[in-house]
Design a protein that fits this description.
57% of the residues lie in helices and 0% in strands. It has twelve helices and no strands.
């Protein structure tokens, strides 16, 4: 790869001006190279998605500090009346244990797995099964199933996001370079199209900075 096509700190700073580039750049570049997110089109789509998901690399853990009203809106299935919502409001650990119980490989609410394996990383890794699968592929020095908090550290935050991206086969869609393909990527990451306008704005900026030719 020629020097002019290498991903560099200046580009990251232009795409995510709020990011601490010095803190993140090497971890992010190395993870992307290892995961073959190594063309302008792939980089642009990946960076746009993680910019939205992480607030420009400023958030690496899921925020579960919800009010009762917000719990009823976001997690209506688990908080079916105002009394239950009021009981859990402002208690992130209890909320996580309730909404992630008995799914994603987690135990029941009392197990504490929901909080232990809450979303972490630049594309939030969530649930015991995903921590296990990511660990099995990446083989980090520190077992992230035993020490899930390490997924919030820069190296694993970046590596786990690349792992998720490749597990979902998202580079092939990024190669297409169309809005429809980008929306498909969003669905695979988010489960819906939440924040699509913000993601598209980051994508447009990233394509300009990285000189995507499509």
């Amino acid at each position: 790869m020629t020097a002019e096509h290498e991903f560099n700190p200046r580009q990251l700073a232009k795409i995510m001006p709020r990011a601490d580039v010095g803190h993140w750049f090497l971890w992010l570049r190395n993870a992307m190279e290892f995961g073959k997110i190594d063309t302008p089109a792939r980089r642009a789509a990946f960076l746009a998605q993680i910019a939205h998901e992480s607030g420009q690399l400023t958030r690496v853990e899921e925020n579960l500090n919800y009010s009762a009203k917000r719990l009823r809106q976001v997690f209506e299935r688990y908080f079916s009346d105002d009394h239950i919502a009021e009981t859990y409001a402002g208690k992130p650990e209890l909320i996580a244990n309730r909404v992630y119980a008995n799914r994603l490989g987690n135990g029941n609410e009392a197990s504490g797995d929901g909080w232990k394996y809450r979303g972490r990383g630049l594309i939030q890794l969530t649930g015991r099964d995903n921590y296990f699968l990511c660990s099995a592929v990446l083989k980090p020095k520190i077992d992230i199933v035993e020490r899930p908090e390490t997924v919030a550290e820069p190296g694993m935050a970046a590596a786990s996001a690349v792992w998720f991206w490749n597990r979902k086969g998202l580079s092939a869609k990024a190669d297409e370079g169309t809005k429809a393909a980008f929306e498909w990527i969003t669905l695979r990451i988010n489960g819906g199209l939440n924040g699509l306008d913000d993601r598209l704005a980051y994508w447009a900026r990233a394509k300009e900075v990285l000189e995507v030719s499509q």
